[in-house]
């Protein structure tokens, strides 16, 4: 993607230079060279419809080649307008750069499968080198943008269109690397409200490169931005609670979210069941490659609450990682019990300001009995910095957690 970015910048610079030469010092030979340069760059360029203003401008400029006439004022104004639009698009919707993988296992594979009826994206250490193509970011295609628009109606679908340009570092269906003695540990990851299996891919592929199998599941409780129906042809989108639930959190609001949470935890357990079954399935690539005694759960926001609930219910879970865990929908018995397994809870600077919620989280961590526990905050971060959204546009609260050069941690 870095190479594609530089080619895109070079194409914009070539078109801009062409515009300037046409207006300042028209020269047939120079313009011919510039058109040839633009054609060459366009050949290697990653075409995307967001750059239509730039393409139109390049074609218009080429149309003047050989006419030997002065550029009209109206045409110069049109050139300037299209240049500004092209620059804005490149800035607002850059080609996404995903964080580099760990050097521990620098080759990671990615495959999508249904586990006990749930769509899952699986990341795993892969054989190196591999000729497999980089995995397209989108699993749901245009349906993810539709679902995100239902989750945040004030943001148009077109704003999420740049997702289609994403290519992960993980390689599509690359061969699984033979596990070390005992098998690969597994992390099952749960998305937050309005999330989907795509939206934490930078996190999941990096964890896989540290030597783990990571299974990101797509919940079907109505909290996901989109999920695929069992027919594999139709889709369901985010199910927004009624306004009355938002106004009455202690009553209707809590009831709705708590009911969803219990369904989510059951789905996470179903995925754990499927992971154990894969390890016993001779026809599976994961046969005897999984360490079923090292199963962990993780999640962001509502997904963090799902991970805590699952760990409370399922003794197979040996560790929990929570990113901005949403404590409000949890059962009181879960909050009061704490955890008996290792837990790492990381919160953003934004949620650090939520005093009542922070107090609940601190009490929960205090009650967790295992000596290996950590409660950390990352300064200058917001709630969505834990997902992939900031990778696709600077207006989505960039820079994201994974691209921040200097992270400042606070132990709470």
From TrEMBL:
Tell whether Hydrolase is among the UniProt keywords: yes
Biological processes annotated in GO: lipid catabolic process
Segments traversing the membrane: 7-24, 54-71, 77-98
Cross-referenced Pfam families: PAF-AH_p_II
The UniProt keyword set, sorted, is: Hydrolase, Lipid degradation, Lipid metabolism, Membrane, Transmembrane, Transmembrane helix
Superkingdom of this entry's organism? Eukaryota
- Name the InterPro entries on file: AB_hydrolase_fold
- Is the keyword Amino-acid biosynthesis assigned to this protein? no
Q: What is its EC number?
A: 3.1.1.47
Q: Which GO terms describe its molecular function?
A: 1-alkyl-2-acetylglycerophosphocholine esterase activity
The protein depicted here goes by the name 1-alkyl-2-acetylglycerophosphocholine esterase
Q: Which organism is it from?
A: Aphanomyces euteiches
The opening ranks of the lineage are: Eukaryota, Sar, Stramenopiles, Oomycota, Saprolegniomycetes
